[in-house]
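Inverse folding, one chain.
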């Protein structure tokens, strides 16, 4: 620090001390100014501070009016930055009339797969066929649609079976059965035993998973075996 910079700093410190004269802070400013002045050979300033106002080390005291006043005077004031935050958590889009797609999803019966890879031997479903649908048949490993000889997507029929003992096409008892491989073989035999050409809506079906069979070749997976019983509705065409 140059002598001129020291002189300016001392003047500022003394000006701060004069602005808060009569407070403990004034003595601190005068002491700092004199210390800096002595270092750079500048004139010192004598300051008479009442004994009662001599700065003392801070000690913890019970909360009271005097302590709160001193804390208010000694606490430095800093400018606070205020920001305006807009919360999006409570914002909602205005309501609008429901479309056909939304209604159709809301009222579509919830169905679960009748059998899956975790099904144990002995698992079965028993109920009435309330719908027959179809969807593209997907490869088990690649999940790509299977194609026929003409390059078209191969479709697989799906039975929607109500297992709660009624024939209603809705409710918690709906199960989905993909008619392929072992299930298809079991249903074909069940229809032949019942004298029917195929399963139809209104027929009653029982399908049971029996377990795994023998693999057709060393590197092939073991086929899943099923048995089925089918009761056609009254008036269904016989074989």
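Residues assigned per position:
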């Amino acid at each position: 620090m140059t002598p001129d910079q020291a002189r300016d700093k001392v003047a500022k410190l003394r000006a701060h001390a004069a602005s808060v004269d009569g407070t403990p802070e004034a003595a601190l400013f005068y002491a700092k100014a004199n210390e800096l002045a002595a270092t750079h050979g500048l004139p010192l300033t004598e300051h008479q501070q009442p004994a009662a106002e001599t700065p003392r080390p801070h000690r913890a005291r019970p909360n009271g009016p005097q302590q709160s006043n001193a804390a208010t005077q000694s606490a430095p004031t800093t400018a606070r930055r205020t920001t305006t935050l807009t919360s999006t958590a409570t914002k909602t889009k205005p309501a609008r009339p429901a479309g056909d797609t939304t209604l159709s999803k809301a009222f579509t019966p919830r169905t679960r797969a009748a059998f899956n890879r975790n099904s144990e031997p002995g698992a079965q479903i028993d109920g009435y066929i309330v719908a027959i649908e179809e969807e593209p048949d997907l490869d088990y490993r690649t999940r790509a649609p299977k194609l026929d000889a003409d390059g078209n997507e191969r479709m697989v029929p799906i039975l929607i079976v109500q297992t709660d003992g009624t024939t209603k096409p809705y409710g918690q008892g709906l199960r989905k059965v993909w008619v392929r491989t072992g299930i298809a073989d079991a249903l074909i035999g069940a229809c032949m035993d019942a004298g029917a050409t195929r399963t139809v809506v209104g027929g009653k079906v029982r399908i049971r998973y029996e377990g795994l069979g023998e693999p057709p070749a060393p590197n092939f997976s073991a086929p899943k075996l099923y048995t089925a019983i089918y009761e056609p509705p009254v008036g269904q065409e016989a074989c």
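The helical segments are 3-19, 24-39, 65-74, 100-107, 181-194. Strands lie at 112-113, 124-136, 155-162, 174-178, 204-212, 224-231.
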